Amino acid sequence: MTSDKLIHARNFSHLFSDEARRRKPSPIKTTMAYFQDPEVVFLGAGMPPSEIFPLKAMSIEVPRPPFVGGLARCEDTMVGTLSREQKDLTFDKDVPLARALQYGNSRGQSELLNFLKEHTRLFHHIPYKDWDIITTTGSTQSWDASLRIFCNKGDTVLLEEYTYSSSVEAAEAQGLNCVPMAMDDEGIIPEKLENLLENWTGVYPGTPMPKLLYTIPTGQNPTGCTLSDNRKPYIYSLAQKYDMIIIEDEPYYFLQMDPYCPQDQREAATNAEAKSNEAFIRSLSRSFLELDIDGRVVRLDSVSKTFAPGCRLGWIVGSRHLLDTYWNLHEVSIQSTCGFAQSIISGILNRWGQCGYVDWLKGLRQEYTLKRNWCLDHCHKYLPSKVVTVPPVSAGMFFMLHVDASKHPEFQTTFQGNKALLERYIYEKCVAAGVLLACGSWFKVKSPTSGVEKVNDNTTMSFRGTYASVPPDAMVKGLSILGETLKKEFKLI
Ligand SMILES: Cc1ncc(COP(=O)(O)O)c(C=O)c1O
């Protein structure tokens, strides 16, 4: 479809919070459009003089695509200089530091935005015309902004039954009702979601219908599972029917790995590197953006897992009309994403080019595949399969262990059939033995009505582990301690 045939996004201002409706663009900020205009003597806004920013240039040294030897071991590097003044730029796509470190440009620096737009076009085919990108200080802030834009105190958001705890904490602190959506190994179960929405007033009497559906589709935190592409159209149609905004939080999107297969059936090395860029792009799960004929999907992206979390740089993809509202909020909150982060990340990405960045992402897949394989191989080696199951995770940084509490000899006696008590006890035993995993219950979304379990009340307790930055030897040690502890506690030795 050529872009002139594409539709426009719908207007969703009826879903805005009171705060978002009250917020008006600041007149002084509108003057920024003239700041760079050579025809205008700009006396309008209080900008510190960039010629006395105490920085003339910055040098960056980064691995060079195609990252021969692997991301961590690549010795071929490229060096670039980021200059303060436009006239001194050694690379024409750099953001001059005088601009990057100045007020203004709160949507993001154009050199970075242009790269990100092209990158988005490469990976997602958005069916409407007027989509855009705005930079943020990472997905945590993007989510917080989303809550403020769409929700008033007392409103409701849907989240996966197990989810990133800080997303729940942010919503609860704003006085919102967090309602869990049932999920399985393939993510949100659409039939159950439909059932919940159809019977809402019976299940949650007095609680408003949800405005936002928050999902971590790929390599979900904490479960590690990935929402099946087949389920997405059904979920999108529910968002349309019940007029919800879908917020897809995708920090783990590029940590999609080769499928796990047991050690003895595995080829000597992962073949991800050998895949063409087109095959790599096709192998990734699809974004809700691709189904979004209305403009009701807000995608949160971040460099925290593809570069480094301390960059505090992310971006939101959505309809221009929605992003204008984020922009208005940003102008009076974060103002803009840090200029250092933008100029450095933009400098790296533009030097690598789209192909080089895809090489980087393919390299990430390879690194994570090796880490995941090592971890799961040793889970299977050390953990007692009579009581523990380990789903074969295919994206993200986390693996889950499901432990059958009912098989604990004292589950009904000492622990009175309460899996939360046993979970805590096992957690403490593990820490005392020298290995720490997070308790699954820490990530569980509690129903707003008097703590009643509405979703999945069984005897499985879960623990979350990560393989992302655990050295191989430490992983072996940790999992063998865990195996011994579980065998001892479940009287399997
Ligand atoms: C689902 C999810 N969203 C957001 C974040 C934080 O992202 P950022 O560093 O971009 O704020 C995390 C964890 O780090 C996460 O698991």
From TrEMBL:
The keyword Transmembrane helix does not apply. InterPro entries: Aminotransferase_I/II_large, Class-I_PLP-dep_aminotransf, PyrdxlP-dep_Trfase, PyrdxlP-dep_Trfase_major. The lineage of its organism: Eukaryota, Fungi, Dikarya, Ascomycota, Saccharomycotina. GO terms for biological process: aromatic amino acid family catabolic process; lysine biosynthetic process via aminoadipic acid; tyrosine biosynthetic process. It comes from Lachancea dasiensis. It holds the Pfam family Aminotran_1_2. Its cofactor is pyridoxal 5'-phosphate. PANTHER family: AMINOTRANSFERASE, AROMATIC_AMINOADIPATE AMINOTRANSFERASE 1. The keyword Coiled coil does not apply. Its main location: cytoplasm. Belongs to the class-I pyridoxal-phosphate-dependent aminotransferase family. Keywords: Aminotransferase, Cytoplasm, Pyridoxal phosphate, Transferase. GO terms for molecular function: 2-aminoadipate transaminase activity; aromatic-amino-acid transaminase activity; pyridoxal phosphate binding. It is found in: Cytoplasm. Its EC number is 2.6.1.57. Residues 102-424 form the Aminotransferase class I/classII large domain. It catalyses: an aromatic L-alpha-amino acid + 2-oxoglutarate = an aromatic oxo-acid + L-glutamate. This is aromatic-amino-acid transaminase. It comes from the Eukaryota. One of its GO terms (cellular component) is cytoplasm.
